[in-house]
């Protein structure tokens, strides 16, 4: 198994090689002991073993117990080497810091100190009894080498301090990354929910409950709403045949949920233990967000889930309230526009039509008594009035139609956006449109513009494309959109894996949601250095039938 070397691994390898080279050089220059040939042979063997241990330390860093055994074996070998090359006078006496530093940086504090003091004890005792040619006492021998021991102790202390700072930095980086992912997920929830089919908003929320809590199963149960259809209750993680039983059990406790304002732990028969959080708008109770708890979860983990569900509950309430306010605002806009049109028609067209009707009625009563010239004059007046009414009506219609009045159309806004994107990024964007969007409902306009904007932006920002081809076909029953770029491409399997792991794929996931919310199909194909192709097919009218 080939393990990629980290920066720490490279530093340790360089340090081991340099320290072994220096101690070996000192050992060779020492004229006492074996011949140069035997010394050279010993050094070659040491270098070989050093490389072997370095490789195994890198591979064993995920298995602390096995790593402890490997470090202990190297320490034992170095003790033997030190004793047989002079004990306190050995050139290799400081080389023992190599495995000790490995232990101090990767293993427990107690283990590294045990290794160091074990090395001191064995070397001191053996040197006193077998290598004490000067007749020094044990205390004198230890004090004479006190500087050596002090250097080793201080080195281990410094290494442990550095390792503690490193762990704190890694923990801070992990918290920062987790916060960034949390913010990205928050953005994605709000962005997706603002574009997604409102009746399926529960699915968007449960998907992100699973993503944020890292649990396997989540639910969003909506209480029945009198007078108006409520969003559909949704779940993530259960099989389809289990879904009905899950929501029927929740409905049995509806009265209890409506009175609940705090998180509640609930055991549902046949389903397990749940953590549930009520979702309340400012005006009414909406439903419950919940997760199925694992049996192994401790108190600290449950506190974390409570915090996440409280946050998602408030966010869901804000999203739902914003949607309802948006619906009310749209109704008021339509009502105000209807009133404006009615007033305008009444003040101009209606009055003119009334004059024509009155003139026609009068002419019907008196035309037999009129001369031919008088009759012709009256008819001419009615004709002029009718022409004036037709002109006023045409002006009113043109003022209401952006297409006929020459105002900004949706297709014009798409062209303008892509033209600006092309000019600002020096990228060639080719837009081909067939068909007419005049009768296309507003939700389709909104979703298609978002998809086109997201896809072309991704091609430029992430794909480094120099050309993007956008083809949009608008037919009475089908919409087909193709977006192809010549960028660097990517591995699509890796994209969806990263999206599930909270590390990427937000834009693609959003486009997929938008297409599916209108009953459409989203297809993505790409490979490295071969560009990206997005194909979307949307049936016109399906979204309206779903919401009917």
From TrEMBL:
Swiss-Prot/TrEMBL catalytic activity: ATP + protein L-histidine = ADP + protein N-phospho-L-histidine
A GO cellular component annotation in the UniProt record: plasma membrane
Gene Ontology molecular functions: 4 iron, 4 sulfur cluster binding; ATP binding; metal ion binding; phosphorelay sensor kinase activity; protein dimerization activity
Keywords: 4Fe-4S, ATP-binding, Cell membrane, Cytoplasm, Iron, Iron-sulfur, Kinase, Membrane, Metal-binding, Nucleotide-binding, Transferase, Transmembrane, Transmembrane helix, Two-component regulatory system
Alphabetized CDD domains for the sequence: HATPase_UhpB-NarQ-NarX-like
Necessary cofactors: [4Fe-4S] cluster
Assigned EC number: 2.7.13.3
Transmembrane segments: 36-57, 66-88, 108-130, 142-162
Main EC class the enzyme belongs to: transferase
Membrane disposition: Multi-pass membrane protein
Subcellular location: Cell membrane; Cytoplasm
Boundaries of every Histidine kinase domain copy: 448-542
Function: Member of the two-component regulatory system NreB/NreC involved in the control of dissimilatory nitrate/nitrite reduction in response to oxygen. NreB functions as a direct oxygen sensor histidine kinase which is autophosphorylated, in the absence of oxygen, probably at the conserved histidine residue, and transfers its phosphate group probably to a conserved aspartate residue of NreC. NreB/NreC activates the expression of the nitrate (narGHJI) and nitrite (nir) reductase operons, as well as the putative nitrate transporter gene narT.
Protein name per its UniProtKB record: Oxygen sensor histidine kinase NreB
Organism: Paenibacillus riograndensis
